[in-house]
Amino acid sequence: MKDLETGQRGYxxxxxxxxxxxxERGLAEIKSNLQYITENSKAEGLSSDDAARLIRLTDxxxxxxxxxxxxxxxxxxxxxxxxxxxxxxxxxxxxIRLQIAATISREDSALAASGARAESxxxxxxxxxxxxxxxxxxxxxxxxSQIREEIMRREAALLDARRQKDLFEVTLxxxxxxxxxxxxxxxxxxxxxxxxxVTGWSRxxxxxxxxxxxxxxxxxxxxxxxxSPVETVFRLGSIVGLANHTLLIRKDGSEVPIDDSGSPIxxxxxxxxxxxxxxxxxxxxxxxxAKLRETNDALQAANRAKDQFMAALSxxxxxxxxxxxxxxxxxxxxxxxxxxxxxxxxxxRRNVELxxxxxxxxxxxxxxxxxxxxLNPEAxxxxxxxxxxxxxxxxxxxxxxLTMYRELEAKRYYVNADSARLQQVFGNILNNAIxxxxxxGHIRIVTANDPAGNLLISFVDDGIGIAAEVLDRIFxxxxxxxxxxxxxxxxxxxxxxxxxxxxxxHGGNLSATSAGHDRxxxxxxxxxxLESAADATATRVRTNRAGHGGxxxxxxxxxxxxxxxxxxxxxxxxxxxxxxxxxxxTVAEAIRLARENNFDLVLSDVGLxxxxxxxxxxxxxxxxxxxxxxxxxxxxDQNVAxxxxxxxxxxxxxxxxxxxxxxxxNDLTVIRQSAxxxxxx
Length: 681
What we know:
There is one protein chain. By secondary structure, the chain is an alpha+beta fold. The protein has 4 domains: 2-118; 175-281, PAS domain (Beta-Lactamase, 2-Layer Sandwich), CATH 3.30.450.20; 291-333 and 549-681, Rossmann fold, CATH 3.40.50.2300; 364-536, Histidine kinase-like ATPase, C-terminal domain (Heat Shock Protein 90), CATH 3.30.565.10. The chain is built from 25 helices and 21 strands. Strands 1, 2, 3, 4, 5, 6 and 7 form a 7-stranded antiparallel sheet that branches. The chain has a 5-stranded mixed sheet with strand order 9-11-12-14-13. Helix 2 runs antiparallel to helix 3, helix 3 packs antiparallel against helix 4 and helix 12 packs across helix 16 (419-436).
């Protein structure tokens, strides 16, 4: 600080910047020292109050020096001298000297105290040395006693080891598996009675014999000698087991299939001291395996038969629905249908589609329980579906004189869902409410949005309610609660289980609550909602455009169908749409027509009188790449895969949605018209 003042005074008197050199050097050093004090005051033993006061005074002195220099530069010598004569700088410098002197005084006092403590510690050191000497002597006495006790423990351990050895031999002799123990020379030192029985060797004859002489094994198929597991254990130093199909040659030359393993016997240091070999007669197990394979083959055959039956049943149930659904869809868009019949036809069409979905659920319950559901999502108005479901169940509602309340107050009520599947869910839940509601009861359907914007649809009834012990399993397949409820109300107990799986497949949740017996129940469906109705409108516009795009005039279709009603209705609908359609009912006729004509599309059933659609498409693929759609009642996963593999471009399950069929035909024929080649499969 003195250097800084010297440089400042020289500059103030002369105005020569060179006199500021000591000031600049001192300023840098002071800042460095202040930084050090700030970071290390505690380590250096300087109190925080002393450090803070010294830093503050120093900062104020530096500001005073800097201010005088600035006055000399800007206002001249007189202004600077007037500022210096205020004696502010002198007072600050005196304060700094006093602070440093006080700090040094305290440090000196602390140093003197440290010296006194050092002298005191020397006295303590002498005392400690004396105490340590006594302690070391005590430790030596304790160590002697411990060594003596350890010797006694070792003697006891040796005695216990002999007892353990006896117990070990008794244990090995008692277990059901055959056991042979060898030493490091692979000579037998122990054999239990089971090993005697399996090998045909007595224990007295086998002891001290090489293990390979008693335990002779060969490979069952090749009769090649198999390395003894004892030798393998010594070679690898780890547990080993025999390969399958190993035979043991008994003492009398007879053969026994065995299963065995060998384990190293290690001492406390980890060294291998021998091998313990365990094995068993595998004859009974082989017989059980053969029986199990036979049973498994029978089960697989039964399962294949079941799958074939389910596929055939699916086909037979779906096929008659196809002309019905097609006719209803034709009427629905026809201008000739009286307006009063439109709602009825629409209701019939919805119910036929729903019936097809129910058939899918009943025939493919395994796929539902595994979460492998086939969905065709689109933007759906959930409020409209609720109204549809109520209309479908109006007769049952009226029959029980039930009062229906609708509180459809959700602002976001469009969802991305398979409308038929979702209608099936609502129908199952409403049917459940009607079923268990008493006469003159009440049912409320309430919609709302949760804080996350999800759509909540609650079906509330005042019926028989659900007992607490039943509530946890209400969504289990074939669960209907108590036997009394099953006898009284009937049913399979499948609807709620299927509904929960369907809702979860849509990314939602189905839950149930009830206050107990005769206190009603509430079933709530939660589904992610679309942000606005515009999303639904856009989706429908895209679907309609896709279904009506392309040029149909001049497009020829070969329609192969042996069900006469389906053939007549579907071909009529396609011709009305502007397609040229030629029909036939057999594989042979279809192959002939495909060779004689240049069709733009093949639409074929799979189950035909003289073969299958798979046979047909394979024959067509030998000479043509014409697009082909499989239109069939066979809808199992393995069926769909086989149709695609055979060469069909697309698979549609009966009863097919007409709009979806027209979209598929349009897509395949437009692609074929715009490009001469089309990938198959």
